[in-house]
Amino acid sequence: MAVNYPPVGNKVIAKVIETQGDCSIGMKVGDEFEVGIHQCGEFCGYFYHNLFHWINLLQFDGAFPLFPDKDVMVWECPNPNNRVKVELRREKR
Questions:
Q1: Has residue 25 been placed in a domain?
Q2: What is the mean pLDDT of the chain?
Q3: Residue 16 domain-assigned (yes or no)
Q4: What confidence score (pLDDT) does residue 2 get?
Q5: Is residue 3 part of a domain?
Q6: How far apart are CA 21 and CA 85, in angstroms?
Q7: What pairing do the DSSP bridges indicate for beta strands 72-76 and 32-35?
Q8: What ranges in the chain are assigned the alpha helix state H?
Q9: Which of 9, 25, 70, 88 could be stapled to 59 by a disulfide with Cβ–Cβ 3.0 to 4.6 Å?
């Protein structure tokens, strides 16, 4: 079944920028994909669960004062043995 995600809010792009160890689902530096409230990209549920509210914030024009660039956030996977660092980037539609 083909899935068609409707464009809702801003586009949010996740890009793997660093890894320590081997990601259990095989994410590699340079992997990039779109994520959103309906679309979990290539994340495992463990990581996506931690990022969902930040993705929601970026998708719907929110901002968080501790990040110097309101359109970019960097987060690490919660797996302490195999860290994956991801940049979330908002792109206006």
A1: yes
A2: 92
A3: yes
A4: 81
A5: no
A6: 11
A7: unpaired
A8: 45-59
A9: 9
- Whether 65 maps to a domain, the answer reads yes
Q: Strand pairing partners for 14?
A: 33, 88
Start-to-end CA distance of the chain, whole Å, equals 26
Low-confidence ranges of the chain (pLDDT < 50): none
Helices first, then strands: H and E counts in the chain = 1, 4
Domain count, the chain: 1
Alpha carbon distance 85, 51 (integer Å): 12
Which DSSP state fits 6?
Answer: -
User: Which residues contact residue 32 at a Cβ distance below 8 angstroms, ignoring those fewer than 6 apart?
Assistant: 13, 14, 15, 16
Contact between 16 and 86 under an 8 Å Cβ cutoff? The reply is yes
E runs forming strands in the chain: 11-20, 32-35, 72-76, 83-91
CA 65 to chain centre: 18
